[in-house]
Every structure is written in C-alpha cells, then in structure tokens.
Amino acid sequence: MISKNMYKVLKQIPHAPNKTNFKGLSDKKIIDISFLKSVLREAISYKYIQYCDPSNPFRQVEVHNFYLTEAGQVQIDEYENQKGSSAKATWALVIAGLSFIASVVAIIISVCVVQ
Question: Which of 95, 50, 41 is nearest to 70 (CA)?
Fold first, then answer.
C-alpha cells in the first residue's frame, strides 16, 4: 500500500490526456517541495505516473509533464478502500466495547436485584 504522502500527490495528478508538471504540483503546496521530488521519482519508478513524452532520454521530473497511469489509480483506490476498512473496523470495536460494558452493567444489576 502507498504512503499517505504518495496518496496526497497522486490524488492531484490528472489522468491522460490531461497532464500536469512539477511546478503545478508544487504551487498546490501538498507537501514540502524537496520531498515532492522524491515522491514523484518514486511514483515514476513504480509506474504510477508517466511522462507525456516517453521517448525523452533526460526524464527530469522538474521539467517534463506527466499524468496518472492506471497503476496509479489502482493504488489510490486501494488506499481509500484500506482507510475505509480501517474506519469500519474501529467502529466495530467501539460497538463491541459498548456492548460488553452494557452486558457487565446488566449482570451487576441482576445480581443486586436478586439479593
């Protein structure tokens, strides 16, 4: 699963045929600019984003336009599904805890009423 910072960055990158560049992302102030370069390079290495001109030999993330690939969209969806599942699991634990407390209170009341 991708990191929170990778998610924030990928979420701001459009699908083809739309495109963006480093300046466009850095102007949004998603994360620190030096860290943004690192995240974008990692995203390119995992093929989450792709340069608009794949034949360009220099491949500098600071200069060229890029767009989100299907692999990048899959990672965004997986991250969102995981976060949703975590929230549901947390609520299930809270409800189970409240049920446990209610049953303990019911037992205590039943014991006190019998005597």
Answer: 50
Q: What's at 78, amino acid-wise?
A: E
Contact residues for 11 (Cβ-Cβ < 8 A; gap 6+): 76
| DSSP string computed for 36-100 | HHHHHHHHHHTTSEEES-TT-SS--TTTS-EEE-HHHHHHHHHHHHHHHHHHHHHHHHHHHHHHH
CA-based radius of gyration for the chain: 24
- Signed CA dihedral, 38, 41, 46, 49: sign only: positive
Distance CA(42)–CA(44), nearest Å, equals: 5
Q: What is the pLDDT along the chain (115 residues), one digit of tens a residue?
A: 899 999 999 999 998 889 988 888 888 888 888 899 899 999 999 999 988 876 665 667 777 888 999 999 999 999 998 888 888 888 999 999 999 999 999 999 988 886 6
